[in-house]
Amino acid sequence: MPQPRLTDDQRRAALAELPQWTMAEGREALQRRFTFRNFNEAFGFMARAALTAEKMDHHPEWSNVYKTVDVVLATHDAGGLTELDLKLARAMDRIAATMGA
Amino acid sequence: MPQPRLTDDQRRAALAELPQWTMAEGREALQRRFTFRNFNEAFGFMARAALTAEKMDHHPEWSNVYKTVDVVLATHDAGGLTELDLKLARAMDRIAATMGA
């Protein structure tokens, strides 16, 4: 069953609840930059987040340059944000928090 | 000891030897897109390449969207391409080849 797209109110509430995420420029998507101490930690975060994403069958768009990981979350099938994106954003925040980022 | 930047001749020879890589737009860097069957394979490739990169202490700039991995290689300290980039490009090609990409 496809996820329903968030309403404007739901999107606003989600942004309030996820203070480190912002709306991506020019599209309905969430973005956050995670900064770690080095590549080992940055890729360690990616490995943990990848396992979570695969389990959810919902995957990030992300890029990595040394200790930085830039993440964009959106639900392509829904043409915007859904509860899946919020769930993955929260999970990534939790993983990063255990790693001091 | 910093790596010396490749000469024009060395760069041309490298591109001939690495037919799936091209020069990035507007900068002295190599780029290649790797396409796999799914996220599991794409991230598996990234995990193997990350171990190689960490061992070399030379890291890619890369992004991943589901089954696609876009890689850019350059040596920041040298302001362009060095032998390290060629070594990492060859290693990534070898890893991808074992995964059917």
Automatic annotation (TrEMBL), chains A, B:
Keywords, ordered alphabetically: Lyase
Coiled coil: none
EC number: 4.2.1.96
Domain of life: Bacteria
Catalytically driven reaction(s): (4aS,6R)-4a-hydroxy-L-erythro-5,6,7,8-tetrahydrobiopterin = (6R)-L-erythro-6,7-dihydrobiopterin + H2O
Gene Ontology terms for molecular function: 4-alpha-hydroxytetrahydrobiopterin dehydratase activity
InterPro entries reported in the protein's UniProt record: PCD_sf (IPR036428), Pterin_deHydtase (IPR001533)
Pfam families in alphabetical order: Pterin_4a
Family that this chain belongs to: Belongs to the pterin-4-alpha-carbinolamine dehydratase family.
Protein name: Putative pterin-4-alpha-carbinolamine dehydratase
